[in-house]
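[Q] Does anyone have a clean structure-token version of this?
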Amino acid sequence: MEEEVAIKVDNVSKSFILPHEKVDSVKGIFTSMLKAKKWKTKENQHAIKNISFEIKKGEFFGIVGRNGSGKSTLLKIIAGIYQPTKGKVKVSGKLVPFIELGVGFNPELTGRENVYLNGAMLGFSHKEIESMYNDIVEFAELEKFMDQKLKNYSSGMQVRLAFSMATRAKADILLIDEVLAVGDADFQRKCFNYFKELKKNKKTVVFVSHDMDAIREYCDKAILIDDSMLKFKGTPEEISERYIILFNPKESTNKSQSNERWGSGEAKIKNIKIDTGKNIKVFIEISVKKNIDNPIVGIQVIDGAGVHICGTNNIILKQKIHEFNKNKTIKLEWSIPNIFNTGRYSIDLAITHQDGISQIDWWHDAGSFEVVNKASTPHLVAPEILINFFED
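[A] Here you go.
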């Protein structure tokens, strides 16, 4: 229904005109006026092209893509900062962009003075700002610095204060554009806890990020933008996988194998064995061809309809692997509780560098297993569930 749509992007394009003639002196201004028109060239840069999608109220919606793909331009059009060259955007509800954090801050004022200034810009009264001041400062972790001028803050300190202020804004829709990149791990944890609150409270959030773990954890749906165009719509798992493929185009387009496999080849997964029982156990060996620091090893389980049922990696499980040593063989066992419905399932296996993006060996449909469950249900999984009846 139309009233359930928070944001509708309808065939939106945005172009910027780039002039190529450069005048850098007073003499140049006059001589350029005498030049023939044919020497004054311009170029249309297409930042985004014919993009359409809808975001429902209460959705946590991810937008991913490489640098320069058009993500931030799209977010600024949704925020009303840019006007589209073609198409239109309809927004239902009050929208607050976390895009240019710190806009309106005065570097010559103290942190304390900027809190009151920025709060007034967000529509809060002096009394309301006073009541939330301590929470703002505590969240930003700047208790000792609030009476220093903002120009003496590091970029990370400024972002922490700006983000803490922005979280107080009363909004139906929030646009978040990779604003956490300069925060340390503890501050990012606070921000992600804030995201959980937004999700719990059914706020509509548009989240631009290069962090695929965050996209998978928080988003309900996602899109991938590349070369200024919308390439894919789908689940966070599907879009994350498509995003990773962008960084390995040669390997991902090689169809000589019966299933898709790509990566640098610095290590290779081999000798896969899958046992089914109370737990699904996946045994693998990894042949290491080059020293690799802090690798990430992951697994996904997919059902016959292509739905990603579950997945994890050693970082999520807080089991850090410090190093793969050249010419060594690593043995690894995954153990997954067998709560699956009757059917056939496939697994994806992956090894990446510590950035989670640079693929070493990503093996789609690396193996499969079958489950026969007497307690099958029409749902995605069928855990053992007990029921007890009591009669007064």
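[Q] Thanks! Anything notable?
[A] The chain has a mean pLDDT of 84.
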